[in-house]
Amino acid sequence: MKFKIKEVKNQKILVDTNIWLYLFAPSFIPSPQNQYKVNLYDEVFNNLLEKNTLLFNSLIISEFINRCLRIDFNSLPEFNDFKKDYRNSQRYKESLKLTLKEVEKIYKLAKPINDNFNEYKLNFFKESLDFNDSIILYQCLRNKFLLFTDDKDFSKYINTSWWRG
Questions:
Q1: Which residues of 105-116 are buried (b: 16+ CB within 10 A; e: fewer)?
Q2: Burial grade of 103 (CB within 10 A; 0-12, 13-18, 19 or more)
Q3: Angle between helices 58-74 and 90-109 (to 10 degrees)
Q4: Selection from 1, 70, 62 nearest residue 29 by Cα
Q5: Interhelix angle 58-74/131-143, nearest 10 degrees
Q6: Which residues contact 99 (CB under 8 A, 6 or more apart)?
Q7: What is the pLDDT of residues 5-53, one digit of tens each?
Q8: What are the angstrom distances between the C-alpha of 118 and each of 14, 80, 91, 130?
Q9: CA distances to 26, 27, 28, 53, 68 from 32, in Å
């Protein structure tokens, strides 16, 4: 399937957690609408990868790992408590191992950046964003990164449709 994608080159692009989830954990988010997004983001990502520098930070990796494990936990009715039941199970160990293999792929395709958390000021926190997203926004604005995301909350502050043709 071909999508209308704007050519972007020589940019530094921070790839948000939700995009990594669509690319490397699509089985965690099954639905026909999500399959459309998986296809779209895969095509956009591959287009961007050729001519740009793709980036991630520690918060994005943390969110990716935690989200994958939480989705797995929520799919299993035999576990009542994430920390007491699930994290002590063989299933958790297997899911974590698989998730970390996906994280290795992220490291091969994109570059980690320093969070520079020491520079972040709490007065930059945006009420309509969670704390991690406020830091991601701060990094994009401070460093003039483009943000590749599926999170519409960011659009109140920065252009998130720059890649659409």
A1: ebeebbeebebe
A2: middle
A3: 150
A4: 70
A5: 150
A6: 25, 64, 65, 68, 69
A7: 899 999 999 999 999 999 998 666 656 667 888 889 999 999 999 999 9
A8: 19, 37, 37, 18
A9: 11, 12, 13, 30, 19
What percentage of residues in the chain have a pLDDT greater than 70?
95
Q: In this structure, how many other beta carbons lie within 10 angstroms of the beta carbon of residue 36?
A: 12
pLDDT at residue number 27 = 65
Q: Which residues, listed in sequence order, are joined to residue 55 by a DSSP beta bridge?
A: 14, 111
Q: What angle do CA 40, 45, 46 make, to 5 degrees?
A: 105
Which CATH topology does 12-156 take? Answer: Rossmann fold (3.40.50)
